[in-house]
Amino acid sequence: MKQSFFYGTVILIVAGGITKVFGFAHRIVLSRIIGAEGMGLYQMVVPLLYFLITVTTFGLPVAIAKQVAETEAANNPRLTRRYLLLALSVAGGISLFVCTLLLLFSHWIAGALFADPRAHIVMLAAVPVIPISSISLVLRGYFQGKQNMIPTAVSQLLEQVARMALVVVMTMSFLSAGIEYATAGAVASIIFGEAAGLLYIVWQYRKGSKKAAAQLLETPFRKAVSASKASLAQLIHVALPVTLSRIIGSIAYVLEPMLVPLALVIAGYTTAAATGLYGQFAGMAVPLLLFPTFLTYSLSVSLVPAVAEAAYQKNAPLVHRRIYQAMRITLVIGAPCTVLLTIFAEPLCVLLYGSEYREVGALLKELAPFSVFLFFQAPLAAALQGLDYAQVVFRNTLLSAIIKTGAMFVFTAQPAFGIHGAVIAANIGITLGTLLHFASLVKKIGFTIDVWEFGKIGIAMLAMGYLGSYMANHLFLHSSTGKLLLASTSISALVYLVLLVAMRVLGKQDVRRIPWIGEQLAMFFPRR
């Protein structure tokens, strides 16, 4: 069932929000059961697990979404099935190879990568997640290419529900055997979550086209591959730069915890103080900065097939309209998040982490104004990938990662900056990556924006920030932190929405597109 670009985006945003909440709840429950020691083992293995999933999927979810969107536009179901078979074969083959290596050399790999030998048990428990997740992600990409976001949304929710339902049982069942086995049980709950999501999405595929599913399963592998060399080359053409972009991001993520504490020691801090400061930056401030990005990530997932379809049809006005629509939605959503994170950084951190971590709020306050660039980054990259410029995304990502990593070490090593140097470098990386993507889009297709409309959103954003700051510093100054945040954010967000409606940025036709409740809400909005 094909959905409109806006409809599909809203479905993914709702599912992404619920999934984020479940993810936080999962982590809280898990930490209460296995404690800091178990969470340490968990955090050693899970980043490696997700890195290996990135490698095994090989950028195929994005590639299959783009190619399926094009074959659907061409009304060529045979080629759609061929792309799906090839993507599943490649992802399955790479997964099998990676899992075999992990099992054969598990002791050596665990010894080389983990400081705690008990992480070996946890790593073995995580191995089955890799093939299940890889196949599931490819099938999601297939449905995204058909511009049907419901299977992706529902499978994400099923994964989290299954994990939440089983994490307590599986962790407690092995707790008596040792903390490493309890943590392995927690990781094993991920297997059942991924399996639940995969079973649902396979059922959706068979339900949607039983004939296609039968033909897909009956096609001999060798015959299909030999007849599909051009299709395989096209998949790799898109998938390889997507994979390289993600690997570059992963490498930068791995280097950061090595470079920043070292730079802080050079700046004159003790090792313990350097570790603590890095924990405040990367473990407390940055996760809060990244939390709202699920909104624009959902937008980027919908944008790849929408742009690819319009580009295949050589409909340049539709390409521009869909990208502009994505940019407009991004700013409407991202502007209030940027304001709220900036104005209420310190009380938010005090509420979440306690008054002893007030310094985290200062770091978040320095990061937050640049989060508006962060929100644009994923949709801009998705637009370029949908237009078959994935290699441009890779080039931009590589350049910004190199500059960010270098700046992070240089600035942080200066005693005048300390951990604030890492903040400066992060802001440079975010801003540079986004501006490079935007410049590439302008150069490739002559993309433009309506400066006046974006300016009106900026006016509403500034008014919201002033009002929120005034209330926090005057009206609710003596309120508890929770009440201050609730009252100030609610009132300022309402004023932001009213200003958007008053300036005709939001209108009846925008609200009507919201699934389920759009028609009912539209009666309260004027026409643009």
Describe how the helices and strands are arranged.
Layout: H1 5-57, H2 60-73, H3 77-104, H4 106-113, H5 119-126, H6 129-145, H7 150-174, H8 179-208, H9 210-218, H10 221-226, H11 229-266, H12 271-290, H13 293-312, H14 316-343, H15 345-353, H16 358-367, H17 371-386, H18 390-412, H19 419-445, H20 451-475, H21 481-502, H22 508-512, H23 518-522
Helix pairs in contact: 1-3, 1-5, 1-6, 1-7, 1-8, 1-11, 1-13, 2-3, 2-6, 2-11, 2-13, 3-6, 4-5, 5-8, 6-8, 7-8, 8-9, 11-12, 11-18, 12-16, 13-14, 13-17, 14-17, 14-20, 15-16, 15-21, 17-18, 17-19, 18-19, 20-21
Structure description:
- This protein is mostly helical and 528 residues long.
- The protein has helices at residues 5-57, 60-73, 77-104, 106-113, 119-126, 129-145, 150-174, 179-208, 210-218, 221-226, 229-266, 271-290, 293-312, 316-343, 345-353, 358-367, 371-386, 390-412, 419-445, 451-475, 481-502, 508-512, 518-522.
- Helix 1 (5-57) crosses helix 7 (150-174) and helix 12 crosses helix 16 (358-367).
- The model has no long low-confidence stretch (mean pLDDT 85).
